Amino acid sequence: MFNRIRLVATREFLTTVTSKGFLIGVFVMPLIGLALTFAIPKIMAQRGAQITVEVALIESSGTLADTLRRELDPEVIIARRNAGRRAAMEQAAPGTGDMAEKAPAPQLTVPKFIVKVLPAGSTADAEKGWLTAQDIGERARRALLVVPPEAITQASPGADYGLYQLYAPRNLPEDAEDMLQGRHARDADHRAPARRRP
After folding, report:
1. Taking a C-beta distance cutoff of 8 angstroms, is the pair 164, 193 a contact?
2. Less CB within 10 Å around the terminal CB: N or C of the chain?
3. Under 8 Å CB-to-CB from 96, ≥6 apart: which residues?
4. Which candidate, 151, 172, 147, places its Cα nearest to that of 161?
5. Do 123 and 145 have their domain in common?
6. Do both 40 and 82 map to the same domain?
7. Model pTM?
């Protein structure tokens, strides 16, 4: 009796193991999963060539340009992204922050920012022609950042800070716009910008 049960169980096992569905499930699916694990970050990182964003800065204090250049440096932006990724992993699963550092981060293309300080007395209206000019390269973009003095220092104790204004054409990539509106700009003037199209 037990011998018959063993023979039936062996036959069923061999039939199952040699079926196409079992072989695909055991060998092929894990290989596909492994391939996707490596392929998806590479596909996501393929965002094309690096673009250059020329940022014209109108501000009278003369203190913002160096801070803006430092914060818009590609290495600083990548370090900030990695820190955010690490913090998000740590928040989602406490204790995994170290794993985020060891895991290879997708190398996304970061725009190269060039900050150009405009002379005193420059106005946004006078610079709109430069901002919308069509004679720039295919991989180049422009933005204009207007920072009034009250956006950097309070007019009086307890007074609100002023707002800075970001003028950007429609072809400015969203990530570049986010970087210009992000923490690095607010560090200097404490307020989010008013976004305007030229």
Report:
1. yes
2. N
3. 89, 90
4. 151
5. yes
6. no
7. 0.57
